[in-house]
Amino acid sequence: MPKRVLQGVVVSDKMKDTVTVLVERRFTDPVMKKTIRRTKRYHAHDAQNAFKTGDKVRIRECVPISKTKRWEIYTGEEA
Question: How far apart are CA 56 and CA 76, in angstroms?
């Protein structure tokens, strides 16, 4: 099964080896037919501490690294 890849913006880089990524999804309300925006924050593993607040990043599912980290920064080069 392929791993999910999400795109978002780094909102916090204060932790060591971890960034907080805000991911927004849009969908149409089934009753009102309006476009709704929902956001969610994910903790992602950033081993090199390369990304700073405001950077656009892609994150990919991975094995659990800690209690809250199940995502890693995805650059696309990994096979």
Answer: 14
